[in-house]
Design brief:
The chain has 11 helices and 20 strands. The model has no long low-confidence stretch (mean pLDDT about 95). It has 2 domains: about 180 residues, Medium-chain alcohol dehydrogenases, catalytic domain (Quinone Oxidoreductase, Chain A, domain 1, Alpha-Beta Complex), CATH 3.90.180.10; about 130 residues, 3-Layer(aba) Sandwich (Rossmann fold). By secondary structure, it is an alpha/beta fold.
């Protein structure tokens, strides 16, 4: 038995191909994939052949944000039923290395993460019609939730992890730089955590227009209004916490000026080397903390989406069939209108 997959061979060389479906082993399930979201890393693979030192060195099936319907159960699988919609956790830490043993599986030395070119051979992802995966990575979603919503569990987990790095947000003034999918989901996660004021900056009105629905209290287009953050930079700064989801040098410098002394800046976006205002970091005693991926946050992300305590629907801007996967990637690269672009592997879901 075979399945269609979207496999990237090189920069802008994305092909629909057939691959064998492995037999079910004990503890595994076979899914009929339903929806998959195009992430920033997927886009970098497609547009640039990689990002930083991570390069596509062999054909790779893309995709690490996805949902599917349970189609077959392997021996010993319990807690799942045929036809059930599940969100798939793409993260597979080894559980044995020194970091896994001390409770830091995010830093696993033998991490297997679907759709990632970090390892060689690459870890194939979920942009395919059928997927065999360990049952432990399948999280059932609630009734009435669409496949498109379920596929947002992975990026929401990233944002829940980022928000957890900042400590108690109850009543806090928060700045979020960058209103792409991760920035907007960070808005929702910060609102859920009790943030009092959430200001969002971006260069595009289309991106900012979605922020109020996610919980933002104020939006600033720093392209058309470059001095928009100036009032927040007076008296050594205003914000208790900043989440930088842009990884842009100008945004970071503005954030350092707008954060309070001893505030916390959580770095979510990634890029190459940037120049930072080191004097501000030291002089204001800022805590600057990185945040990557997630672990225990995946199940809570699924639960929040299932109950619509965090409504991810406003970020889903486009859905394309698998036959139009190239068009989907091209659309995802146009931030003037696109936010979260998804691939619908089954055309019954209109998310």
């Amino acid at each position: 038995m075979q399945t269609r997959v979207a496999r990237l061979h090189a920069e802008r060389d994305l092909r629909l191909e057939m691959l064998d479906i492995p037999d079910l082993r004990p503890g595994e399930v076979r899914l009929a994939m339903a929806a998959g979201g195009i992430c920033g890393s997927d886009l970098h693979y497609y547009q640039d052949g990689g990002f930083g030192p991570v390069r596509v060195r062999e054909p790779i099936v893309a995709g690490h944000e996805a949902s599917g319907f349970v189609e077959a159960l392997g021996e010993g699988v319990s807690g799942l039923v045929l036809g059930q919609l599940v969100a798939v956790n793409p993260s597979q830490p080894c559980g044995q290395c020194q970091y896994c043993r001390i409770g830091q599986p995010i830093h696993c030395l033998d991490m297997r993460f679907m759709g990632s070119a970090m390892r060689l051979p690459h870890e194939n992802g979920m942009f395919r019609e059928k997927l065999v995966v360990p049952a432990i990575q399948c999280h059932p979603v609630g009734p009435g939730v669409t496949a498109g919503e379920a596929a947002c569990a992975e990026p929401l987990a990233v944002c829940l992890h980022a928000v957890a790095q900042a400590g108690d947000l109850a009543g806090k003034a928060v700045l979020i730089t960058g209103a792409g999918p991760i920035g907007l989901l960070t808005v929702a996660a910060a609102r859920h955590a009790g943030a009092g004021q959430i200001v969002v900056t971006d260069l595009a009105d289309a991106a900012l227009s979605r922020a109020p629905a996610m919980g933002a209290t104020q939006m600033i287009n720093v392209a058309s209004n470059p001095d928009g953050l100036s009032p927040f930079q007076e008296n050594k700064g205003h914000f208790d916490v900043v989440f930088d989801c842009s990884a842009a040098g100008p945004a970071l410098r503005a954030a350092f000026a707008a954060i309070k002394p001893r505030g916390t800046l959580v770095q979510v976006g990634v890029t190459g080397d940037v120049t930072i205002p080191l004097n501000a970091l030291v002089g204001k005693e800022i805590v600057w903390r990185g945040s990557q991926r997630f672990h225990e946050e995946f199940a809570p992300a699924v639960a929040l989406i299932s109950a619509r305590k965090i409504d991810v629907r406003p970020i889903i801007s486009h859905s394309f069939p698998l036959d139009a996967v190239v068009e989907a990637f091209e659309q995802a690269g146009d931030r003037s209108i696109a936010c979260k672009v998804q691939i619908a592997f089954q055309q019954t879901d209109k998310a």
